[in-house]
Write a structure and sequence with these properties.
Belongs to the GTP-binding elongation factor family. LepA subfamily. Belongs to the TRAFAC class translation factor GTPase superfamily. Classic translation factor GTPase family. LepA subfamily. The protein is of the alpha+beta class. Helix content is 25%, strand content 34%. Bound molecules: guanosine-5'-diphosphate (GDP) and magnesium ion (MG). Magnesium ion (MG) binds next to helix 1.
Protein backbone atom coordinates (compact mmCIF):
# COMPACT_ATOMS: atom_id res chain seq x y z
CA UNK A 1 0.00 0.00 0.00
CA UNK A 2 1.39 3.45 -0.87
CA UNK A 3 1.77 5.61 2.23
CA UNK A 4 -0.81 8.05 0.86
CA UNK A 5 -3.45 5.29 1.14
CA UNK A 6 -2.75 4.45 4.77
CA UNK A 7 -4.76 5.84 7.70
CA UNK A 8 -3.87 5.08 11.30
CA UNK A 9 -6.58 5.89 13.81
CA UNK A 10 -8.16 4.90 17.09
CA UNK A 11 -11.53 5.25 18.77
CA UNK A 12 -11.62 7.10 22.04
CA UNK A 13 -14.67 7.14 24.25
CA UNK A 14 -15.95 6.95 27.76
CA UNK A 15 -16.66 3.40 28.91
CA UNK A 16 -19.91 1.95 27.47
CA UNK A 17 -20.24 4.59 24.78
CA UNK A 18 -19.85 1.86 22.15
CA UNK A 19 -16.19 1.63 21.19
CA UNK A 20 -16.10 -2.17 20.91
CA UNK A 21 -19.41 -2.28 19.07
CA UNK A 22 -18.17 0.30 16.58
CA UNK A 23 -14.88 -1.54 16.08
CA UNK A 24 -16.90 -4.72 15.34
CA UNK A 25 -18.98 -2.78 12.78
CA UNK A 26 -15.85 -1.54 11.04
CA UNK A 27 -14.66 -5.15 10.74
CA UNK A 28 -18.05 -6.34 9.50
CA UNK A 29 -18.68 -3.56 6.98
CA UNK A 30 -15.21 -3.96 5.48
CA UNK A 31 -15.47 -7.75 5.28
CA UNK A 32 -12.50 -8.21 7.62
CA UNK A 33 -14.53 -10.58 9.70
CA UNK A 34 -17.85 -12.36 9.19
CA UNK A 35 -20.98 -12.02 11.29
CA UNK A 36 -20.44 -15.60 12.37
CA UNK A 37 -16.93 -14.95 13.65
CA UNK A 38 -17.71 -11.74 15.39
CA UNK A 39 -18.82 -13.38 18.60
CA UNK A 40 -15.88 -15.74 18.71
CA UNK A 41 -13.29 -13.14 17.94
CA UNK A 42 -13.61 -9.57 18.98
CA UNK A 43 -11.07 -6.89 19.64
CA UNK A 44 -11.01 -7.41 23.36
CA UNK A 45 -10.29 -11.09 23.51
CA UNK A 46 -9.63 -11.72 27.16
CA UNK A 47 -12.53 -13.26 29.01
CA UNK A 48 -12.28 -10.92 31.93
CA UNK A 49 -12.38 -7.92 29.66
CA UNK A 50 -15.40 -9.20 27.88
CA UNK A 51 -17.20 -9.92 31.12
CA UNK A 52 -16.45 -6.53 32.56
CA UNK A 53 -16.86 -4.68 29.28
CA UNK A 54 -13.54 -2.95 29.53
CA UNK A 55 -10.61 -2.99 27.21
CA UNK A 56 -7.29 -3.39 28.92
CA UNK A 57 -4.75 -4.43 26.33
CA UNK A 58 -4.59 -2.60 23.04
CA UNK A 59 -5.26 -4.75 20.03
CA UNK A 60 -4.68 -3.24 16.63
CA UNK A 61 -6.43 -4.46 13.51
CA UNK A 62 -5.68 -3.81 9.84
CA UNK A 63 -8.69 -3.23 7.61
CA UNK A 64 -8.76 -2.90 3.80
CA UNK A 65 -11.44 -0.66 2.34
CA UNK A 66 -12.15 0.62 -1.12
CA UNK A 67 -13.40 4.14 -1.68
CA UNK A 68 -13.58 6.04 -4.96
CA UNK A 69 -11.66 3.33 -6.77
CA UNK A 70 -8.73 3.46 -4.33
CA UNK A 71 -7.84 0.74 -1.89
CA UNK A 72 -7.06 2.04 1.58
CA UNK A 73 -5.28 0.34 4.45
CA UNK A 74 -6.85 1.42 7.72
CA UNK A 75 -5.15 0.55 10.97
CA UNK A 76 -7.55 0.71 13.88
CA UNK A 77 -5.78 0.75 17.20
CA UNK A 78 -7.87 -0.08 20.22
CA UNK A 79 -7.50 1.96 23.39
CA UNK A 80 -8.43 1.08 26.96
CA UNK A 81 -11.27 2.90 28.62
CA UNK A 82 -10.42 3.18 32.31
CA UNK A 83 -8.38 5.66 34.34
CA UNK A 84 -5.98 2.95 35.53
CA UNK A 85 -4.85 2.47 31.97
CA UNK A 86 -4.61 6.05 30.76
CA UNK A 87 -0.94 5.67 29.98
CA UNK A 88 -1.85 2.95 27.49
CA UNK A 89 -4.16 5.43 25.81
CA UNK A 90 -1.19 7.76 25.31
CA UNK A 91 0.85 4.94 23.82
CA UNK A 92 -1.75 4.01 21.25
CA UNK A 93 -2.34 7.66 20.39
CA UNK A 94 1.34 7.94 19.49
CA UNK A 95 0.84 5.35 16.74
CA UNK A 96 -2.07 7.26 15.12
CA UNK A 97 -2.76 10.39 13.11
CA UNK A 98 -6.43 10.59 13.95
CA UNK A 99 -9.11 9.54 16.44
CA UNK A 100 -12.84 8.98 16.33
CA UNK A 101 -14.15 10.69 19.46
CA UNK A 102 -17.24 8.66 20.23
CA UNK A 103 -19.96 10.07 22.49
CA UNK A 104 -23.19 8.39 23.56
CA UNK A 105 -26.03 10.51 22.12
CA UNK A 106 -28.04 10.10 25.29
CA UNK A 107 -25.45 10.10 28.09
CA UNK A 108 -23.41 12.90 26.59
CA UNK A 109 -19.89 13.98 27.47
CA UNK A 110 -18.33 12.05 30.38
CA UNK A 111 -15.10 12.34 32.35
CA UNK A 112 -13.10 10.01 30.10
CA UNK A 113 -14.46 11.71 26.97
CA UNK A 114 -12.83 14.92 28.10
CA UNK A 115 -9.63 13.34 29.39
CA UNK A 116 -9.06 11.26 26.24
CA UNK A 117 -9.98 14.09 23.87
CA UNK A 118 -7.34 16.30 25.47
CA UNK A 119 -4.73 13.55 25.34
CA UNK A 120 -5.45 13.18 21.62
CA UNK A 121 -5.31 16.92 20.98
CA UNK A 122 -1.97 17.15 22.80
CA UNK A 123 -0.66 14.30 20.64
CA UNK A 124 -1.63 16.35 17.56
CA UNK A 125 -4.32 13.96 16.33
CA UNK A 126 -7.16 14.93 14.02
CA UNK A 127 -10.40 14.34 15.96
CA UNK A 128 -13.56 13.12 14.30
CA UNK A 129 -16.37 13.94 16.73
CA UNK A 130 -19.04 11.24 16.46
CA UNK A 131 -22.38 10.71 18.13
CA UNK A 132 -23.21 7.05 18.76
CA UNK A 133 -26.51 5.36 19.63
CA UNK A 134 -28.58 7.72 17.47
CA UNK A 135 -31.07 4.83 17.16
CA UNK A 136 -32.13 5.33 20.78
CA UNK A 137 -35.59 6.87 21.08
CA UNK A 138 -34.37 9.09 23.90
CA UNK A 139 -31.16 10.21 22.13
CA UNK A 140 -30.63 13.97 22.41
CA UNK A 141 -28.12 14.80 19.68
CA UNK A 142 -28.37 18.61 19.83
CA UNK A 143 -27.97 18.73 23.56
CA UNK A 144 -24.95 16.42 23.45
CA UNK A 145 -23.35 18.36 20.58
CA UNK A 146 -23.71 21.47 22.74
CA UNK A 147 -21.79 19.72 25.51
CA UNK A 148 -19.08 18.63 23.07
CA UNK A 149 -18.69 22.23 21.88
CA UNK A 150 -18.36 23.41 25.44
CA UNK A 151 -16.10 20.65 26.79
CA UNK A 152 -13.77 19.80 23.91
CA UNK A 153 -14.25 22.63 21.38
CA UNK A 154 -16.08 20.51 18.81
CA UNK A 155 -17.29 22.24 15.63
CA UNK A 156 -20.95 21.11 15.31
CA UNK A 157 -20.58 21.01 11.52
CA UNK A 158 -18.01 18.23 11.84
CA UNK A 159 -20.07 15.85 13.98
CA UNK A 160 -20.80 12.42 12.46
CA UNK A 161 -23.85 10.43 13.57
CA UNK A 162 -23.88 6.66 13.84
CA UNK A 163 -25.50 3.71 15.46
CA UNK A 164 -22.80 1.14 16.03
CA UNK A 165 -25.42 -1.37 17.07
CA UNK A 166 -27.71 -1.10 14.06
CA UNK A 167 -24.93 -0.27 11.61
CA UNK A 168 -26.22 3.19 10.66
CA UNK A 169 -23.72 5.73 9.30
CA UNK A 170 -20.72 3.39 9.36
CA UNK A 171 -19.72 3.92 5.69
CA UNK A 172 -19.93 7.68 6.12
CA UNK A 173 -17.72 7.47 9.16
CA UNK A 174 -15.16 5.33 7.28
CA UNK A 175 -15.19 7.94 4.52
CA UNK A 176 -14.65 10.71 7.07
CA UNK A 177 -11.68 8.82 8.49
CA UNK A 178 -10.16 8.57 5.01
CA UNK A 179 -10.88 12.21 4.13
CA UNK A 180 -10.01 13.90 7.39
CA UNK A 181 -7.21 11.86 8.97
CA UNK A 182 -3.88 12.73 7.35
CA UNK A 183 -1.87 9.96 5.70
CA UNK A 184 1.26 9.14 7.70
CA UNK A 185 4.30 11.21 6.77
CA UNK A 186 7.32 8.96 6.53
CA UNK A 187 10.09 7.90 4.19
CA UNK A 188 10.33 4.23 3.26
CA UNK A 189 13.86 4.73 1.90
CA UNK A 190 15.26 6.35 5.06
CA UNK A 191 16.98 4.26 7.79
CA UNK A 192 14.48 2.21 9.80
CA UNK A 193 12.68 3.86 12.68
CA UNK A 194 9.82 1.90 14.24
CA UNK A 195 8.09 2.68 17.51
CA UNK A 196 7.28 -0.15 19.92
CA UNK A 197 3.91 0.57 21.46
CA UNK A 198 2.94 -2.78 22.97
CA UNK A 199 3.91 -6.45 23.18
CA UNK A 200 2.58 -9.77 24.32
CA UNK A 201 4.07 -13.16 25.05
CA UNK A 202 3.28 -16.08 22.78
CA UNK A 203 4.24 -19.55 23.96
CA UNK A 204 5.40 -20.63 20.49
CA UNK A 205 6.79 -17.44 18.97
CA UNK A 206 8.23 -15.73 22.04
CA UNK A 207 7.59 -12.01 22.47
CA UNK A 208 5.35 -10.50 19.79
CA UNK A 209 6.33 -6.84 19.42
CA UNK A 210 3.71 -4.34 18.20
CA UNK A 211 5.24 -1.63 16.05
CA UNK A 212 4.32 1.48 14.12
CA UNK A 213 6.85 2.13 11.37
CA UNK A 214 7.83 5.75 11.03
CA UNK A 215 10.62 5.51 8.41
CA UNK A 216 12.25 2.69 6.46
CA UNK A 217 11.05 -0.90 6.23
CA UNK A 218 11.31 -4.24 8.05
CA UNK A 219 11.41 -7.79 6.74
CA UNK A 220 12.21 -11.26 8.04
CA UNK A 221 15.94 -11.99 8.17
CA UNK A 222 16.80 -8.33 8.83
CA UNK A 223 19.14 -7.62 11.74
CA UNK A 224 17.62 -4.98 13.99
CA UNK A 225 18.69 -3.06 17.04
CA UNK A 226 16.63 -1.73 19.97
CA UNK A 227 18.01 1.77 20.42
CA UNK A 228 17.57 2.07 24.19
CA UNK A 229 19.20 -1.21 25.15
CA UNK A 230 21.46 -1.60 22.07
CA UNK A 231 20.31 -5.25 21.95
CA UNK A 232 20.30 -6.83 18.50
CA UNK A 233 17.97 -9.46 17.06
CA UNK A 234 17.16 -11.07 13.72
CA UNK A 235 13.53 -10.76 12.62
CA UNK A 236 11.86 -14.16 12.25
CA UNK A 237 8.36 -13.04 11.30
CA UNK A 238 6.56 -9.86 10.21
CA UNK A 239 2.82 -9.55 10.14
CA UNK A 240 -0.39 -7.64 10.62
CA UNK A 241 -3.36 -8.21 12.90
CA UNK A 242 -6.40 -9.01 10.77
CA UNK A 243 -7.52 -9.43 13.59
CA UNK A 244 -5.56 -12.68 14.11
CA UNK A 245 -1.81 -12.61 13.45
CA UNK A 246 -1.27 -12.86 9.69
CA UNK A 247 2.24 -13.05 8.24
CA UNK A 248 3.43 -10.64 5.58
CA UNK A 249 6.71 -10.16 3.67
CA UNK A 250 7.45 -6.63 4.68
CA UNK A 251 6.15 -3.57 6.54
CA UNK A 252 7.12 -0.07 5.45
CA UNK A 253 6.88 3.53 6.70
CA UNK A 254 3.41 4.41 7.97
CA UNK A 255 2.28 0.83 8.53
CA UNK A 256 1.31 -0.87 11.77
CA UNK A 257 1.93 -4.52 12.59
CA UNK A 258 4.07 -6.90 14.58
CA UNK A 259 7.35 -8.75 14.45
CA UNK A 260 8.92 -11.65 16.31
CA UNK A 261 12.66 -12.22 16.72
CA UNK A 262 13.16 -15.08 19.18
CA UNK A 263 12.88 -12.71 22.11
CA UNK A 264 12.35 -14.85 25.19
CA UNK A 265 11.72 -12.29 27.86
CA UNK A 266 9.13 -9.55 27.73
CA UNK A 267 11.32 -7.44 29.99
CA UNK A 268 13.80 -7.14 27.10
CA UNK A 269 11.26 -5.17 25.10
CA UNK A 270 10.79 -1.60 26.23
CA UNK A 271 7.52 0.04 25.31
CA UNK A 272 8.33 3.37 23.65
CA UNK A 273 11.72 2.19 22.42
CA UNK A 274 12.78 2.66 18.79
CA UNK A 275 13.72 -0.25 16.56
CA UNK A 276 16.32 0.47 13.89
CA UNK A 277 18.44 -1.43 11.37
CA UNK A 278 21.61 -2.80 12.98
CA UNK A 279 23.74 -2.10 9.90
CA UNK A 280 22.12 1.15 8.79
CA UNK A 281 20.91 2.72 12.05
CA UNK A 282 18.86 5.90 12.36
CA UNK A 283 20.77 8.88 13.77
CA UNK A 284 18.48 9.31 16.75
CA UNK A 285 15.66 7.52 18.52
CA UNK A 286 12.05 8.70 18.61
CA UNK A 287 10.95 10.50 21.72
CA UNK A 288 9.89 7.65 24.03
CA UNK A 289 7.28 7.75 26.73
CA UNK A 290 7.79 7.08 30.36
CA UNK A 291 6.73 3.66 31.58
CA UNK A 292 4.13 4.13 34.28
CA UNK A 293 5.16 3.25 37.80
CA UNK A 294 2.77 1.23 39.92
CA UNK A 295 0.95 3.58 42.28
CA UNK A 296 -1.01 1.12 44.39
CA UNK A 297 0.59 -1.68 46.39
CA UNK A 298 -0.69 -4.53 48.46
CA UNK A 299 0.58 -7.76 49.95
CA UNK A 300 -0.54 -11.07 48.45
CA UNK A 301 -0.17 -14.20 50.58
CA UNK A 302 -1.08 -17.82 49.99
CA UNK A 303 -3.43 -19.09 52.69
CA UNK A 304 -1.29 -22.22 52.84
CA UNK A 305 2.36 -21.37 53.21
CA UNK A 306 3.48 -24.32 51.10
CA UNK A 307 1.81 -22.67 48.09
CA UNK A 308 4.37 -19.87 48.08
CA UNK A 309 6.30 -21.24 45.08
CA UNK A 310 3.07 -21.86 43.16
CA UNK A 311 2.11 -18.27 43.79
CA UNK A 312 5.50 -17.07 42.55
CA UNK A 313 5.02 -19.07 39.37
CA UNK A 314 1.51 -17.73 38.82
CA UNK A 315 2.66 -14.13 39.34
CA UNK A 316 5.54 -14.69 36.91
CA UNK A 317 3.09 -15.88 34.27
CA UNK A 318 0.93 -12.81 34.69
CA UNK A 319 3.94 -10.55 34.45
CA UNK A 320 4.74 -12.04 31.02
CA UNK A 321 1.89 -10.09 29.52
CA UNK A 322 1.73 -7.15 31.84
CA UNK A 323 4.96 -5.32 32.44
CA UNK A 324 3.24 -2.64 34.53
CA UNK A 325 2.56 -5.15 37.29
CA UNK A 326 5.40 -5.82 39.79
CA UNK A 327 5.99 -8.27 42.63
CA UNK A 328 8.75 -8.84 45.21
CA UNK A 329 8.83 -11.38 48.04
CA UNK A 330 8.07 -10.18 51.56
CA UNK A 331 7.60 -11.81 54.93
CA UNK A 332 4.95 -10.95 57.45
CA UNK A 333 4.81 -12.35 61.00
CA UNK A 334 1.07 -12.75 60.67
CA UNK A 335 0.81 -14.07 57.14
CA UNK A 336 4.11 -15.78 56.51
CA UNK A 337 5.75 -15.68 53.09
CA UNK A 338 4.12 -13.69 50.34
CA UNK A 339 4.66 -10.93 47.82
CA UNK A 340 4.37 -7.17 47.76
CA UNK A 341 2.62 -6.41 44.47
CA UNK A 342 2.44 -3.12 42.58
CA UNK A 343 -0.53 -2.09 40.42
CA UNK A 344 -1.45 0.91 38.29
CA UNK A 345 -4.66 1.44 40.21
CA UNK A 346 -7.50 -0.30 42.01
CA UNK A 347 -9.11 -1.81 38.93
CA UNK A 348 -5.77 -3.19 37.79
CA UNK A 349 -5.37 -4.74 41.23
CA UNK A 350 -8.79 -6.33 41.11
CA UNK A 351 -8.20 -7.72 37.63
CA UNK A 352 -4.86 -9.25 38.60
CA UNK A 353 -6.34 -10.88 41.67
CA UNK A 354 -9.23 -12.33 39.69
CA UNK A 355 -6.88 -13.68 37.04
CA UNK A 356 -4.71 -15.28 39.68
CA UNK A 357 -7.62 -16.99 41.32
CA UNK A 358 -9.00 -18.12 38.00
CA UNK A 359 -5.77 -19.38 36.42
CA UNK A 360 -4.19 -20.98 39.45
CA UNK A 361 -6.21 -22.65 42.14
CA UNK A 362 -4.61 -20.68 44.92
CA UNK A 363 -6.36 -19.38 47.99
CA UNK A 364 -5.06 -15.90 48.58
CA UNK A 365 -5.12 -13.30 51.31
CA UNK A 366 -4.66 -9.74 50.20
CA UNK A 367 -3.67 -6.95 52.56
CA UNK A 368 -5.05 -3.42 52.44
CA UNK A 369 -3.83 -1.43 49.45
CA UNK A 370 -1.65 1.58 49.94
CA UNK A 371 -0.17 4.15 47.60
CA UNK A 372 3.56 4.69 47.07
CA UNK A 373 5.07 7.16 49.52
CA UNK A 374 8.33 9.08 49.62
CA UNK A 375 10.17 9.70 52.82
CA UNK A 376 12.92 12.26 53.27
CA UNK A 377 15.09 11.21 56.19
CA UNK A 378 16.96 13.52 58.53
CA UNK A 379 20.22 12.39 56.91
CA UNK A 380 19.05 13.82 53.56
CA UNK A 381 18.30 10.45 51.99
CA UNK A 382 14.98 9.99 50.14
CA UNK A 383 13.41 6.54 50.18
CA UNK A 384 10.40 5.18 48.32
CA UNK A 385 8.01 3.22 50.50
CA UNK A 386 5.70 0.56 49.10
CA UNK A 387 4.11 -0.57 52.33
CA UNK A 388 3.72 0.15 56.04
CA UNK A 389 6.49 -2.33 56.91
CA UNK A 390 9.03 -0.14 55.12
CA UNK A 391 8.24 3.00 57.09
CA UNK A 392 11.27 3.91 59.23
CA UNK A 393 10.98 5.05 62.86
CA UNK A 394 9.21 8.38 63.25
CA UNK A 395 12.39 9.85 64.76
CA UNK A 396 14.36 9.66 61.51
CA UNK A 397 11.62 11.05 59.25
CA UNK A 398 12.00 14.64 58.16
CA UNK A 399 9.24 14.66 55.55
CA UNK A 400 6.56 12.12 54.67
CA UNK A 401 5.25 12.66 51.12
CA UNK A 402 2.25 11.21 49.30
CA UNK A 403 1.09 11.27 45.66
CA UNK A 404 -1.42 13.97 44.72
CA UNK A 405 -3.77 13.71 41.77
CA UNK A 406 -5.77 16.22 39.78
CA UNK A 407 -9.23 14.72 39.68
CA UNK A 408 -12.13 15.79 37.47
CA UNK A 409 -15.72 14.87 38.16
CA UNK A 410 -18.47 15.25 35.62
CA UNK A 411 -21.71 15.41 37.57
CA UNK A 412 -25.30 16.64 37.55
CA UNK A 413 -25.31 20.24 38.74
CA UNK A 414 -27.68 19.30 41.56
CA UNK A 415 -25.01 17.19 43.24
CA UNK A 416 -22.33 19.88 43.49
CA UNK A 417 -22.89 20.52 47.19
CA UNK A 418 -22.70 16.86 48.21
CA UNK A 419 -19.68 16.21 46.07
CA UNK A 420 -17.81 19.23 47.42
CA UNK A 421 -18.49 18.08 50.96
CA UNK A 422 -17.15 14.65 50.10
CA UNK A 423 -13.99 16.14 48.56
CA UNK A 424 -13.34 18.37 51.55
CA UNK A 425 -13.75 15.36 53.80
CA UNK A 426 -11.04 13.63 51.79
CA UNK A 427 -8.50 16.44 52.05
CA UNK A 428 -9.31 17.77 48.58
CA UNK A 429 -8.37 21.27 47.39
CA UNK A 430 -10.93 22.92 45.15
CA UNK A 431 -9.51 24.04 41.77
CA UNK A 432 -12.44 25.03 39.55
CA UNK A 433 -15.92 24.32 38.20
CA UNK A 434 -16.97 24.52 34.59
CA UNK A 435 -20.58 24.29 33.38
CA UNK A 436 -21.19 22.15 30.30
CA UNK A 437 -24.86 23.10 30.39
CA UNK A 438 -27.32 24.17 33.03
CA UNK A 439 -27.65 20.60 34.17
CA UNK A 440 -24.11 19.32 34.14
CA UNK A 441 -20.84 20.50 35.48
CA UNK A 442 -17.16 19.58 35.62
CA UNK A 443 -15.66 19.87 39.08
CA UNK A 444 -11.87 19.82 39.45
CA UNK A 445 -10.02 19.07 42.68
CA UNK A 446 -6.52 18.20 43.81
CA UNK A 447 -6.56 15.33 46.25
CA UNK A 448 -4.25 12.73 47.78
CA UNK A 449 -4.32 9.52 45.72
CA UNK A 450 -4.72 7.61 48.98
CA UNK A 451 -8.15 9.21 49.41
CA UNK A 452 -9.12 8.25 45.85
CA UNK A 453 -8.18 4.58 45.94
CA UNK A 454 -10.40 3.41 48.73
CA UNK A 455 -13.95 3.81 47.61
CA UNK A 456 -14.20 7.27 46.09
CA UNK A 457 -15.62 5.83 42.89
CA UNK A 458 -18.42 4.04 44.74
CA UNK A 459 -19.13 7.17 46.78
CA UNK A 460 -19.31 9.24 43.60
CA UNK A 461 -21.77 6.78 42.09
CA UNK A 462 -23.98 6.81 45.15
CA UNK A 463 -23.93 10.61 45.59
CA UNK A 464 -24.85 11.11 41.91
CA UNK A 465 -27.22 8.11 41.61
CA UNK A 466 -24.91 6.61 39.01
CA UNK A 467 -24.69 9.70 36.79
CA UNK A 468 -21.29 11.00 37.87
CA UNK A 469 -17.99 10.00 36.26
CA UNK A 470 -14.41 10.78 37.18
CA UNK A 471 -10.89 10.76 35.79
CA UNK A 472 -7.58 11.63 37.39
CA UNK A 473 -3.91 12.11 36.66
CA UNK A 474 -1.00 12.02 39.09
CA UNK A 475 0.61 15.42 39.64
CA UNK A 476 3.49 14.47 41.94
CA UNK A 477 4.39 14.06 45.61
CA UNK A 478 3.56 16.48 48.40
CA UNK A 479 4.43 16.58 52.08
CA UNK A 480 1.65 15.55 54.46
CA UNK A 481 1.24 14.74 58.14
CA UNK A 482 1.25 10.97 57.72
CA UNK A 483 1.81 8.28 60.31
CA UNK A 484 1.99 4.52 60.46
CA UNK A 485 -0.77 3.08 62.57
CA UNK A 486 -0.16 -0.38 64.03
CA UNK A 487 -2.75 -2.88 65.14
CA UNK A 488 -2.15 -5.16 68.11
CA UNK A 489 -4.04 -8.39 68.69
CA UNK A 490 -3.64 -9.52 72.27
CA UNK A 491 -0.41 -7.59 72.58
CA UNK A 492 1.13 -8.79 69.31
CA UNK A 493 1.66 -6.29 66.54
CA UNK A 494 0.17 -7.67 63.30
CA UNK A 495 2.30 -6.15 60.58
CA UNK A 496 -0.15 -7.11 57.85
CA UNK A 497 -2.74 -4.87 59.49
CA UNK A 498 -0.56 -1.76 59.74
CA UNK A 499 -1.67 1.16 57.58
CA UNK A 500 -0.28 4.55 56.66
CA UNK A 501 -2.85 7.23 57.42
CA UNK A 502 -3.19 10.96 57.79
CA UNK A 503 -2.84 11.90 61.46
CA UNK A 504 -6.18 13.68 61.47
CA UNK A 505 -8.06 10.52 60.44
CA UNK A 506 -5.97 7.97 62.37
CA UNK A 507 -8.24 7.68 65.36
CA UNK A 508 -11.40 7.24 63.29
CA UNK A 509 -9.72 4.69 61.01
CA UNK A 510 -8.26 2.86 64.00
CA UNK A 511 -11.63 2.53 65.72
CA UNK A 512 -13.24 1.20 62.56
CA UNK A 513 -10.54 -1.40 61.99
CA UNK A 514 -10.87 -2.65 65.56
CA UNK A 515 -14.67 -2.87 65.30
CA UNK A 516 -14.31 -4.88 62.13
CA UNK A 517 -11.73 -7.18 63.75
CA UNK A 518 -14.05 -7.74 66.67
CA UNK A 519 -16.71 -8.98 64.26
CA UNK A 520 -14.33 -11.26 62.40
CA UNK A 521 -12.32 -12.88 65.18
CA UNK A 522 -14.10 -15.66 67.08
CA UNK A 523 -14.29 -15.68 70.84
CA UNK A 524 -11.49 -17.47 72.65
CA UNK A 525 -11.27 -18.97 76.12
CA UNK A 526 -9.76 -15.67 77.28
CA UNK A 527 -10.58 -12.05 76.57
CA UNK A 528 -8.80 -10.83 73.44
CA UNK A 529 -7.54 -7.23 73.53
CA UNK A 530 -7.46 -5.25 70.29
CA UNK A 531 -5.51 -2.01 70.08
CA UNK A 532 -4.53 0.61 67.51
CA UNK A 533 -1.32 2.51 68.16
CA UNK A 534 0.86 5.19 66.63
CA UNK A 535 4.52 4.96 67.62
CA UNK A 536 3.63 2.94 70.73
CA UNK A 537 0.84 5.29 71.86
CA UNK A 538 -2.56 3.58 72.00
CA UNK A 539 -5.21 5.60 70.15
CA UNK A 540 -8.10 3.13 70.15
CA UNK A 541 -9.04 -0.11 71.90
CA UNK A 542 -11.66 -2.85 71.79
CA UNK A 543 -11.97 -6.30 73.29
CA UNK A 544 -13.54 -9.61 72.45
CA UNK A 545 -15.17 -11.19 75.50
CA UNK A 546 -14.10 -14.66 76.59
CA UNK A 547 -16.04 -17.69 75.43
CA UNK A 548 -18.25 -19.26 78.03
CA UNK A 549 -20.28 -21.99 76.41
CA UNK A 550 -19.27 -24.78 74.09
CA UNK A 551 -20.27 -23.96 70.51
CA UNK A 552 -22.06 -27.26 70.09
CA UNK A 553 -24.49 -26.12 72.74
CA UNK A 554 -26.13 -24.23 69.91
CA UNK A 555 -27.51 -27.51 68.60
CA UNK A 556 -30.64 -28.56 70.39
CA UNK A 557 -30.38 -31.93 72.04
CA UNK A 558 -27.66 -34.18 70.84
CA UNK A 559 -28.23 -34.58 67.12
CA UNK A 560 -24.88 -36.13 66.27
CA UNK A 561 -25.03 -35.54 62.51
CA UNK A 562 -25.52 -31.84 63.11
CA UNK A 563 -22.62 -31.82 65.51
CA UNK A 564 -20.46 -33.60 62.96
CA UNK A 565 -21.39 -31.06 60.33
CA UNK A 566 -20.45 -28.25 62.66
CA UNK A 567 -17.13 -29.82 63.52
CA UNK A 568 -16.39 -30.38 59.85
CA UNK A 569 -17.21 -26.78 59.16
CA UNK A 570 -14.87 -25.67 61.92
CA UNK A 571 -12.09 -27.85 60.54
CA UNK A 572 -12.67 -26.38 57.10
CA UNK A 573 -12.58 -22.89 58.58
CA UNK A 574 -9.32 -23.69 60.34
CA UNK A 575 -7.46 -23.90 57.06
CA UNK A 576 -8.05 -20.22 56.58
CA UNK A 577 -6.92 -19.19 60.04
CA UNK A 578 -3.65 -17.55 60.98
CA UNK A 579 -2.24 -17.92 64.44
CA UNK A 580 -1.21 -14.58 65.98
CA UNK A 581 0.26 -15.38 69.38
CA UNK A 582 -2.51 -17.38 71.10
CA UNK A 583 -5.22 -15.91 68.88
CA UNK A 584 -6.71 -17.49 65.77
CA UNK A 585 -7.32 -14.81 63.20
CA UNK A 586 -9.47 -15.67 60.15
CA UNK A 587 -8.28 -14.41 56.82
CA UNK A 588 -11.30 -12.11 56.48
CA UNK A 589 -9.90 -10.12 59.39
CA UNK A 590 -6.89 -9.15 57.33
CA UNK A 591 -9.21 -7.36 55.00
CA UNK A 592 -10.70 -5.34 57.84
CA UNK A 593 -8.57 -2.35 56.93
CA UNK A 594 -9.91 -2.42 53.39
CA UNK A 595 -13.43 -1.73 54.49
CA UNK A 596 -12.60 0.93 57.01
CA UNK A 597 -11.83 3.73 54.52
P1 LIG B 1 -17.36 0.28 25.09
O1 LIG B 1 -17.26 0.14 26.58
O2 LIG B 1 -17.16 1.71 24.67
O3 LIG B 1 -16.51 -0.67 24.33
O4 LIG B 1 -18.90 -0.01 24.73
P2 LIG B 1 -19.56 -1.30 24.08
O5 LIG B 1 -19.26 -1.36 22.62
O6 LIG B 1 -19.22 -2.48 24.89
O7 LIG B 1 -21.09 -0.91 24.21
C1 LIG B 1 -21.69 -0.69 25.48
C2 LIG B 1 -23.18 -0.98 25.39
O8 LIG B 1 -23.82 -0.07 24.51
C3 LIG B 1 -23.47 -2.36 24.85
O9 LIG B 1 -24.56 -2.90 25.56
C4 LIG B 1 -23.86 -2.12 23.40
O10 LIG B 1 -24.71 -3.09 22.88
C5 LIG B 1 -24.52 -0.77 23.49
N1 LIG B 1 -24.41 -0.02 22.23
C6 LIG B 1 -23.28 0.23 21.53
N2 LIG B 1 -23.57 0.94 20.43
C7 LIG B 1 -24.90 1.15 20.43
C8 LIG B 1 -25.80 1.83 19.55
O11 LIG B 1 -25.43 2.40 18.52
N3 LIG B 1 -27.10 1.85 19.91
C9 LIG B 1 -27.55 1.25 21.04
N4 LIG B 1 -28.85 1.32 21.29
N5 LIG B 1 -26.75 0.61 21.88
C10 LIG B 1 -25.44 0.55 21.59
MG1 LIG C 1 -15.24 -2.21 25.00
Amino acid sequence: TPTSNIRNFCIIAHIDHGKSTLADQFLLKTGTISERDIKAQTLDSMDLERERGITIRMHPVTIYYELGGRKYELNLIDTPGHVDFNYEVSRSLAACEGAVLLVDAFQGVQAQTVANAFLAMEAGLKLIPTLNKIDLAHARPDFVIGEMEQAVFTDPAEVMRVSAKSGIGIEDLLAAVIERVPAPAGDSTAPLKAMIYNSHFDTYKGVVVYVRLIDGSMKPGQRIKMMRTAREYVITEMGQFRPGMEKCDELAAGQVGYFTANIKNIQDVNIGDTVTDAFNPAAEALAGYKEPKPMVYSGLYPVNNHEFEDLREALGKLKLNDSSFTFTPEVSDGLGFGFRCGFLGMLHREIIQQRLERDSELNLVQTAPNVTFEILKNNGETVTVHGPQDVPDAGVIKEFREPIVKISFLIPAGNIGDLMAMCTDRRGTFIRTEYLSQQRVILVYEMPLAEVIYDLYDKLKSVTHGYGTMDYEVLGYRTADLVRMDIMVHGNRVDALSIIVHRSTAERRGRKVLQKLREEIDRHLFEVALQAAIGGRIIARESIAALRKNVTAKCYGGDITRKRKLWAKQAEGKKRMKQIGQVEVPQEAFLAVLESG
